[in-house]
User: Fold these one by one.
Assistant:
Number 1:
Amino acid sequence: MIVRPLLARAYWALSRYTVKSEPPAGGSAVLIGAPHTSNWDFVLMLAICWRHGFAPLWLGKHTLFRPPFGAIMRALGGIPVNRSNPGRLVEDVVARMRQGQHFLVVTPEGTRSRGKLWKSGFYRIARDADLPVVLGYVDSVTKTTGLGPAIDLTGDVVADMDRIRAFYADIRGIEAAARTDDQQRAGEA
């Protein structure tokens, strides 16, 4: 569809953020977007993907898919997730990924609220579908965004997560919720 690249080009011409990435090599992958602190993360990730020439699938809470916007969300590649009853989500997503050339965008926090632990679904999907994980980011400090490295997961969860955490260590999301605990304590004093 020619409209998406045109929309992406217009968006990046007006955006305060700069894309600092090249199109990812290869076929399908699981793209994680972190830190997820704002609804603008969604717009930025779509604009990044469309700039790089692919229309991703993405997971979103089921309430986003109610009328009147549900049809639009599905047309943008959305897959509804009922977080209170995820059921066979990982298996269903793995089956979709094995069939297509799409990137799947997942926010590992599962929410915009600051949490200590990421949900493991992205890891399980990538391992089960034998796909790399591409590290997407939005950094409000440098006003940059883009796609970082693609990581082939080894099955050693601790080592793989250490590599992923190292990439995101200095990246701050759009909202103040992405500040470190020390920054938050300093701001409260």
Note: The radius of gyration is 16 Å.
Number 2:
Amino acid sequence: VTTNYDILPERGIRHKPRPRVWRPGFHYGMGPELLAGGGYPSYAHIQKITASGSVPVLKLHGSISWSYRGLKLVRYHDCRPAIRGDAASVAPVTAKALPHFLEPVWHEARRALSSSRVWLIVGYSLPEYDQLVRSLFVESAPQDLAVHIFDPDSNVACRFQTLLPMKSVLPHRGLPEGLSELEILMSSTILTAA
């Protein structure tokens, strides 16, 4: 679950599993999906890209690679919606309302968060104005939740503790200093879940 609009997660874990340098591949929460785009007509030989990995990437604020056209959310493999100026993204402002085209994403995010006993929060400062995300966290927090905060600002962990008072909130160093802690935590979490 991410509040970022960029395509860093998609580029990092790739659109399908890669065995040589292991990358699990992603999908946008609803399973395999053919992504739009494919280059100029002279590049007709380029195969269409399908997001068919095992990791759901749930982008709460939309993406620079998504466009809402003809009453349909269209996901591209590149950033052409941002270049065209019609990216389907929601600015993080105080009076933000959830557009209907993002409702399925938020539904899947709520399901994913509520079924997770460990949350790793990396680089999200829980700003006061982001009331929709705050509500999502409160509504989705399971009883036995442990929240690990990776941020150089210790106040971020305090904000999460205030938001989720009955949960275990554990502060960690920000990145890159906290990478070794994050790696250990992810390894132990994966082994526990397996």
Note: The longest helix spans residues 179-193.
